[in-house]
Design goal:
20% of the residues lie in helices and 18% in strands. The strands form 6 sheets. A 6-stranded mixed sheet has the order 11-10-14-15-17-16, with no helix packed on it. The chain is globular.
């Protein structure tokens, strides 16, 4: 076969290949358009437009149960998730993204999560060392923090609270889906960077625009107000601290915790899972749809898993940093199986393969789970206890165990 014939055959092969790829793209586009039309039609038929946020969540859940019975196409599931990335539908997006249809194996029943009230142990010597740290308990530096009158947080025990468990699906949320800044606010800022052996964090305490929050202070017309009339709004403050870039297990640890546990990649602090009476704050307190709330002084924070943070439903994904420098990872292992406190050590962590600074490493890390204590039970590394601005009127917190 001469060169001319070979070149003609190659040209025809490339042409047919290109035509096939183009046809596949056209079919995919047509399928996506059809899926979009069908899903939009279901939303109009079953959800309607004049629906309150909490009613919409209930209707969306019912519609999805109807939806999965008909074995939806991949294009339909994809559009569902895009549609649910809007405002108050974020928590339902998380539920769908972590469902069996999305390849996840959930192990916890959200209707019967353990309360674990008063599940804390305390330091037993002046060096903040302990042999008492244990699973599903918080190792507290100062137990008086959890032995106070209920001056803050939930004022009424909601009907979703049982004797030893609570029903997360029956719990209301603070209404609203606010992208900051709003009137009178400055724009929220937050950045993470590295310098030498340290990782730095800088921000002004206002949620960055991509973090959607509820309306705080809680409005008197909000159903959440009768249980948790949170009067705190958002106030600018200085958030600036350093953590070790390459954390190590402390030879004298584990170390106890104060109020501050860590920070998520979107700049929202993670604080203790207890309220001032030693109750499970995730259960009793009413948070917004991103699992966040405000505290005296105006700092927006979370106590547990950030449902609306994209990596929260990915496998083995970094979602934040504990205040000893170790990473906090999503609740799903590399196979999509949900991890719980039973799978972790007394500090709520484990040693396994993870992606750290772009490389696969076998190292210790914490896991953000749906059960208590949610993120950090004690610190495996040497913590920075005063990374965040203190609560107004609170006694000073030591910087680290070295002091």
């Amino acid at each position: 076969m001469n060169a001319r014939r070979i070149s003609i055959l190659l040209a025809l092969t490339v042409s047919v290949s290109g035509w096939t790829a183009a046809q596949k793209q056209i079919v995919a586009t047509q399928e996506a358009a059809a899926a979009t039309s069908r899903v939009d039609g279901w939303f109009r038929k079953y959800i309607g437009r004049d629906t309150s946020p909490n009613q919409e969540v209930i209707k969306i859940r019912a519609l999805y149960r109807r939806f999965i019975k008909r074995t939806p196409s991949r294009a339909e599931v994809s559009y569902w998730l895009r549609r649910l990335s809007e405002s108050n539908l974020l928590i339902v997006r998380y539920e769908i993204a972590t469902s069996r249809e999305a390849g996840k194996a959930l192990r916890l029943n959200p209707k019967a999560l353990l309360l674990d009230d008063q599940h804390y142990v305390t330091k037993d010597d002046p060096n903040y060392l302990t042999k008492l740290a244990q699973k599903r308990y918080l190792f507290a530096c100062d137990p008086k923090m959890y032995q106070m009158p209920t001056l803050l947080g939930a004022q009424v025990v909601g009907p979703w609270i049982g004797r030893t468990t609570f029903d997360l699906t029956a719990k209301p949320t603070v209404q609203g889906s606010v992208s900051h800044p709003v009137l009178g606010e400055v724009k929220g800022t937050f950045s993470i960077g590295t310098t030498g052996k340290r990782r730095f964090f800088h921000g002004n305490g206002i949620p960055i625009p991509k973090v959607l929050t509820g309306i705080f202070p809680v409005k008197t017309t909000d159903p959440a107000y009768q249980y948790d009339p949170n009067p705190n709004g958002f106030e600018m403050q200085t958030v600036s601290f350093f953590l070790p870039r390459h954390p190590k297990i402390a030879a004298k640890g584990p170390y106890c915790t104060y109020k501050e546990m860590g920070i998520t990649l979107d700049g929202v602090p993670i604080t203790s899972p207890f309220d001032p009476k030693g109750r499970n704050e995730v259960a009793y307190e009413v948070q917004d749809l991103c699992n966040g709330t405000t505290q005296p002084g105006g700092l927006y924070h979370r106590h547990g898993l950030p449902y609306c943070y994209p990596h929260a439903y990915k496998n083995n994904a970094l979602v934040g940093y504990a205040f000893d420098g170790f990473g906090i990872y999503s609740p799903f292992d590399e196979n999509g199986i949900e991890l719980t406190s039973d799978d972790l050590d007394e500090c709520h962590g484990k040693t396994s393969w993870v992606i750290w600074e772009g490389k696969r490493r076998y190292m210790y890390h914490y896991v953000a789970t749906r059960d208590f204590p949610y993120t950090v039970g004690c610190f495996r590394g040497t913590p920075v206890w005063d990374a965040l601005p203190p609560l107004p009127g609170a006694p000073p917190t030591p910087h680290s165990p070295a002091q």
